User: Fold this.
Amino acid sequence: MFSKKWDFDKENIFKKIYHSYNHTGKIILVILFSVLILSAIVLLNDVSKSFMVQVPIKGGSLTEGLVGAPRFINPLLATADTDKDLTSLIYSGLMKIGSNGNVTADLAKSYSISKDETVYDFILKDNLYFQDGTKLTTNDIEFTIKKAQDPNLKSPRRASFFDVKVEKISDKEIKFTLTKPYGTFLENLTLGILPKHIWENMDNNQFTLSPYNLQPVGSGPFKIKSVGSVKKGLTFSSISYDLVPFGRNLSTEPKVADFIFKFYQTEDALVSAYNSGAVESLSISSEGIKNLNIKKSDTTEILSTSRIFAVFFNQNQAPVLSNKEVRTALEMVTDKKEIISNVLDNYGYAIDSPIPFGITGQIQKDSDSDVSSSTIASAKALLEKNGWKINATTGIYERTVKKVKQVLSFSISTANTPRFLEATNLIKNQWEKIGADVTVKAFESGDLQQNVIATRKYDALYFGEATGRDMDMFPFWHSSQRVDGYNVALYTNSKADKIIDDARATLDKVNRTKKYQLLENEITNDIPAIFVYSPDYLYIIPNKIKGASFGPITTSPDRFLSATSWYIETDSVWKIFTR
Assistant:
């Protein structure tokens, strides 16, 4: 058809077309061709974008500041928040708490529970490893649980496995047998697993002194890359841990490439570190946040907690407090809002029971704690109705029962710290308005625990308690815990004991919540304590962290429940590759 074939090695058709135009035409042609190319590029880019999405990729770093130096980064020994925080990221257990607050499998592939709810059988996932490359088996799980049960180690986790029989079936199967049903046992199995090959030959003294408490090897989502410190004389000025992802036991590796922790001696030093840019995230008290210059690029997470503060009455030590009308009158005039405003700068909420709001089905409602002059008058009227009269000389209520004189006079013991003292003195002033004689006794932390609380040598005690995520009320309100447990109100109520036992035995969360509603009614009716407030948990985190979600805080590490989903860097990929 064609009489001539183009030889592109010798003669270029585009050159011929180009040279056929004059100078002006050549300029116009170049411009048109350039516009055509640019338009094609823009069009292709727009089309490409419509088929692409941003996905998280590994990269970036987060530097968090904490108060205190690590000592026991060990799931069997950790008691301080600093130790618990690192332990939660470095170690993993058979189970874990998910970002939604529910217990879910971690190292476990599957598990079954017997019909009588006393036997738990677990199968491990395939190919589990510790961060030193050693394979993780049921030998390590059996060792960890039995070490927790060792009374000579005095692990704070011992109570979680008291009377629990652990039996290795094979390298991948392990069985736990309970003496009776325990509804929250699965949560106990979030305990981090220790590598047996590292710890098995240590006696208890070596166990607590081991350098592995500061250079831990776990199987969790992060491992230690490096440890750094700066010393001034014999004391540290700061210490840091650089954690990097360890995704070998996870379906998806964490995306934050460097999770750096820096530790400081005081909260003031931590505040200075944040204000200077040395740290990016931190937990802070309501007092410390006043001096924090929070950046616009950061978010303040205000989270509810399971920690409660109350005045617990020891009616054995102070018989005057055994009179219910006295406890009722004191409760009536306790201005919780004043305490929250002054002590917490309004970062908290008033409570009327030991069950914090939002933790278990939101049983607890915010307390209506307004106290007016008429409320004070009503409290006095209640006392006078029960035979109490003001002593004209002292201004203190008193009465005589069976020739025995009772004076409305008692002391409140508490910790010798600014926040505890401020709250206790406010309560003292409020109670003195109805003719009570109240003395505040302050003790250093160790003295308070060992010589006051442990011996039950107090009339009343202003103190804080932290229930776990499972809201197990047994240690705090069961009568069996009056002497050696945490039942600091020495509360005795057989009906309450039965409710607690039943709640503890059920696996059904809804049923357990109903039981605790009944318990709440019993306790609020008996008034063994006056519940004051539950503080908020304040956490500052930069907006560059994506994928973070937060719920109520039961322990400090709970802010990291979604940490494996956090990310900083992203990349564009075709949608088809994300399916």
In short: Residues 1-10, 359-367 have pLDDT under 50 and may be disordered.
